[in-house]
């Protein structure tokens, strides 16, 4: 199964499938229909595909401080623990020559470990990083960085 996975830069026509998978993985709608096409056009979006099916993605964009902010990283639950997410991150890392930052939920141990293994360092603990009172992104997050 993993041998058939191909990592490539996303195309605009992949937008809806990426968004559908993101909603399936997170259990709620995370981005509106305009976000992912904008990330693809002006940012960095890579997908993992098995045949004609997208099974994972990483989405990021350049900040005004010349860092790449990873706003989403996900893999279909059926395809986890097969290093697909790591391959997506490694493609992004090899493409950009800028520091990469993101917010992590400290309760998601596999995600924390993956970032640590990729060379990310915790910069600070942030309360309510996204300004939300409840939902998936409420609570504390750790801001992490990987230097270029």
Secondary structure blueprint with pairings:
Blueprint: E1 5-9, H1 15-26, H2 35-42, E2 44-50, E3 53-62, E4 68-75, H3 84-95, E5 100-104, H4 109-117, E6 121-127, E7 140-146
Question: How would you explain this protein's 3D organization?
Answer:
The chain is of the alpha+beta class and 148 residues long. It has a single domain (2-146), classed as 3-Layer(aba) Sandwich (Aminopeptidase), CATH 3.40.630. It has four helices and seven strands. The protein has a seven-stranded mixed β-sheet with strand order 1-2-3-4-5-7-6, sandwiched between helices. Strand 4, helix 3 and strand 5 form a beta-alpha-beta unit. The chain starts with a strand and ends with a strand. The mean pLDDT is 88.
């Amino acid at each position: 199964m993993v041998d058939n996975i191909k990592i490539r830069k996303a195309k605009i026509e992949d937008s809806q499938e990426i968004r559908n998978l993101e909603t399936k993985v997170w259990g709620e709608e995370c981005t509106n229909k305009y976000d992912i096409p904008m990330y693809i056009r002006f940012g960095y979006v890579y997908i993992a595909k098995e045949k004609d099916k997208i099974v994972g993605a990483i989405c990021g964009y350049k900040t005004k401080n010349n860092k790449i902010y990873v706003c989403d990283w996900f893999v279909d639950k059926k395809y986890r623990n097969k290093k697909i997410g790591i391959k997506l991150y490694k493609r992004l890392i090899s493409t950009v020559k800028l520091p990469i930052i993101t917010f992590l939920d400290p309760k998601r141990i596999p995600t924390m470990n993956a970032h640590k293994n990729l060379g990310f360092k915790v910069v600070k603990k942030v309360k309510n990083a996204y300004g939300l009172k409840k939902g998936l992104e409420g609570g504390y997050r750790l801001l992490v960085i990987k230097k270029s």
